[in-house]
Predict the structure.
Amino acid sequence: MKQVVIISGPTGSGESTITNAIIRRHPNFARLVTATSRQPRLKEKHGKDYYFFSKDKFLSEVEKGNIIEYTYIKNRDSYYGTYKPDLDEKLNRGLTVMVNVDGVGVDYYKRKYKAVAIFIKPGSIEELRGRLKGRDSSITDAELNKRLENAKAEMVNEEKYYDYIVYNENGKLEEAIGEVRGILQREGYALDKKPNI
């Protein structure tokens, strides 16, 4: 039985909203908590939002085998990766783990865990612009444009690694959630299995 599914998308695509909706409706699903070398943002907690490590500690965790795949985001000067203790603990409890990774991670999880990969896309770049501004009204034009450029590059460079593309258009979130649930069922994920808590 499949126990790992990849749900990713550019910032503002709604992948977190969709992931959280699946977890709320299906208690046997859980989000992987990613390791990162970036600083925590407002209200973010270690072990809940991310595992926050210094760059040196992150790389030492890689050497120890605790971070099993990772990527370096140059324009953020930060590492992001899979923290194996978190993944193993959730798999051992019988949970289906939802991971958010880039193309390198997609390849890793498909090979090692037979994961299905779903890419969430906004209806358009203009929709994305509106969402990012709505989420952070103090965002500067320069920061907004940088995020939009990153999102465009991600959609061009990353989506080819995925098995499915789901559009999350404004006002159609429920349809997008329904489409993801349909894919999970078709691909053999158990939506209502009881976890071993």
Observations:
- The radius of gyration is 17 Å.
- The mean pLDDT is 92.
- The helical segments are 15-25, 55-64, 84-92, 103-113, 125-135, 141-158, 173-186.
- The longest strand covers residues 67-73.
